[in-house]
Amino acid sequence: MPELLLELLSEEIPARMQDRARADLERLITGGLKEAGLEHGDVWTFSTPRRIGLSVAGLPERQPDVRQERKGPRVGAPDKATDGFLRSVGFDSFDRCEVREVKGAEFWFAVIERKGAATADALGGVVTDAIRAMGWPKSMRWGGSAFHWVRPLHNILCILDGRPVPGSLGIGGGATLTFNGSTVGHRFLAPDEIAVDSAADYRAKLEKAFVLVDPAVRRARIEEAAKEEALATNRFYFVRKDLALLNEVTGLVEWPVAVAGRIDAGFMDLPPEVLITSMRSHQKYFALETPDKQMAPHFIAIADMETGDGGTSVAAGNERVLRARLADAQFFWDQDRKTPLADRVEALEGITFHAKLGSVRKRVHRIQELVGKFASNIGADMNQAQVAALLAKADLTTGMVGEFPELQGVMGRYYALNDGEEGAVADAIAGHYAPQGPSDGCPSDPVTIAVALADKIEALASFWWIGETPTGSRDPYGLRRAALGVVRLIMENELRLSLAWLLKQAAIRASELESGQLVVNNHLAPEEAASGAFDFIVDRLKVHLRDRGVRHDLISAVFAEGDEDDLVRLLARVEALDKLLGSDDGGNLLTAYRRAANILRIEEKKDGRSYEGAPAACLLKMPEESGLAGALDTAAASAQRALEKEAFGDAMAALAALREPIDRFFDEVTVNDEDPALRENRLLLLSNIRAVMDGVADFSRIEG
Fold this sequence. Notes:
This protein has about 700 residues and is α+β, with helices and mostly antiparallel strands. The strands form 6 sheets. The chain has a 5-stranded antiparallel β-sheet, covered by helices on one side. Strands 13-15-16-14 form a 4-stranded antiparallel β-sheet. The longest helix is centred in the middle third of the chain and has 25 residues, at about 310-335.
């Protein structure tokens, strides 16, 4: 069956855009094929810095024939209606229509039959529409073109079954790119035109022309070549793992060639993070490590060229460029250490955190006060935690962090140790931004936990106070990440904290001037801000638990209690409820609860009243009634004692003991007795079933 091959040749496409562009192109082409009625087989996408494309296998020779029936107006309808119908179906008269009877009346029906076009004729429009519809984060025009694309397009290879597809792309200014069956190889190593007739031929010929079009193949080649070059430099050297850099470099080269370079010995005293970041950010070099994870005085660069001297000139050029970069880093390192972090804190007054929230210095003051509210409660040294909070942002004023913002915190640790600060303080400065994502490690040292938690809680409460909250598509201040960080810090370290109270304290601090006077404005009250931020964190917790496989309905059942802000206790209740419902007693108990709740709902609606309160003992005529009443009293008391002790498994066990008396009640007792007094008393028993069980969790929210 015919195969489509499409390649869009252009100037260099940014590496960060290539993955999304491949996905967009596949989605647009396959969507266009579906609309055209063209079934297809496997799709293979590819990209390099200079080209993006795909192949689609298993296409049919022609589009399928189409038969469509359209119901028209009643026979004898006014001319305006009949003429409009004929125009809509493209007929000149009713000669091509049929008369059919529908519910005793005659109507005109148009039968439209269209022969399917050759696939090649249909593809031109599909391809041009897809090219024009591709969305790029940034695009440009070139020459006299009115067409926007990520970079200037030079050629469109588009063949079906080895032959060019009829079609072209007009880019404005009188310029047109006609679909053809040829491409070019590597810009410098093989720039001549290459004719291809299939995807397999395309891949093979381009590889001979020094282009690996498949990103997965290039990535594997880079990994292997870098590893081999590292071993050739020193058999004990290893390439430092850096998946993000590997993916970026894959999008920067068409023919990867690994070259080893040397780092001048004078720079090896720089912190390894500085060396790695300087090489990674500016030059896209891979760092090398020794078996004990120490920095090696070499690096691996991935060139997009083969040279006649085995890479010697490329290595020398890369070493020269890196030498200049590291000289700048050395200067920052030497200059920054001349000013202690403590002396830099006041300079934070010159950095605006947010127009409505003041400077970073004021924010540091709020964080420091908040740390003082709870640090000792989680086992942190209060003095160390407050010193760390004071110094946590000071490295933002250093030259090194100004050059490499990604090193904030990391450099603060080095400068703190240089100033003679305690190790726990220095570690907290480095770790207080964590965790910054689901895969990021979570701090476990109490001082670091205290500062990290205060930093995130302060941000959430403050932004809620000024009304800058995330929307479905926007979260410019990273508040979702901060909320998840709060969840992980509390859950993974099992911190017993009143989160709502801490958020309220943070919101109060945000609403006050340093003088302690309340700012008069239109912002939320601190209590409202804290409540909104708490609900947002709880939403993140629910997502976090669902990702861990916890049932969403169990989460909702426990969280419905509404007055709980100890996240560790909440999770313990969820786990205990899950265990109960996983047992036979729990499953049957849930069925009984629903039966009781359904009867109550029906009868309360019919009677126009709710049934609440204790049943009268003198009206408990049957042993099953008195047995259930006694069991409910016992279960309520036992569950309450267990909840107070946080023995949530015992609370669930107390509920499980209700299964048999509830079953006996429903088997033997008629709730809707003819005697109104007995009926009301029995409905009160049912309401007690609901009340006792809902005192532990809202069972009405549980599914299944």
